[in-house]
Design goal:
The chain has one domain. Helices cover 25% and strands 41% of the residues. The protein has four helices and ten strands; from the N terminus they run H-E-E-H-H-H-E-E-E-E-E-E-E-E. The strands form two sheets. Strands 5-6-2-1-8-9 form a six-stranded mixed beta sheet. Strands 4-3-7-10 form a four-stranded antiparallel beta sheet.
Length: 167
């Protein structure tokens, strides 16, 4: 709980000053039990995004042919490889819905279609662990009015979550 409170305090300061002291992302996940969808959005800071671009496109950025930089499939693949859910049916694949750019941050939107409501899932979150040694990722899971928060860092990248707690 202390981590979540600290993260909530860091986010507004980072937006005001344009920098943040630790790597940080927020994922809002909503289970829509009546339609078997899980919608989620990933909120990241733009400077982290540019560090990711440099990491993923290093060769293209430093060569004479940077045309590969416009390939958004590499960015989508990074986020789906580093944040995913695993049910008793295996890893579920999300569909990328789009993005929204704000002043200091970027929102990426995804949707997962389920075959059935899972009782529990393993959640893996390694977003930006390859960029920042002090990365913290906050996941807020909601279903209707109920919410539950989880934190991930470079040591805690996988957690079991029971949906029974929120529906």
């Amino acid at each position: 709980m202390k981590k979540i409170f600290a993260l909530i305090l860091i986010m507004p300061a980072a937006i005001v000053f344009g920098k943040h002291p630790v790597g940080f992302s927020v994922i809002n996940m909503e289970l829509k039990s009546d339609s078997l969808f899980i919608d989620y959005s990933i909120r990241i800071f733009k400077d982290d995004y540019f560090s990711l671009i440099d990491l993923l496109y290093y060769d293209a950025l430093h060569s004479k042919e940077p045309s590969a930089i416009t390939d958004t499939a590499i960015i989508e693949k990074y986020f789906t490889d580093n944040f995913f859910l695993e049910t008793d049916e295996g890893i579920v694949s999300p569909a990328y819905l789009g993005s929204q750019s704000l002043e200091n941050d970027l929102w990426l939107y995804f949707r997962i279609k389920l075959n059935k409501l899972p009782a529990e899932v393993f959640i893996t979150n390694k977003i930006f662990n390859d960029i920042s040694e002090d990365q913290l990722n906050l996941l807020i899971i909601s279903c209707g009015e109920k919410e539950k928060g989880l934190t991930f860092d470079t040591k805690t990248t996988r957690q079991l979550f029971s949906f029974k707690n929120i529906y």
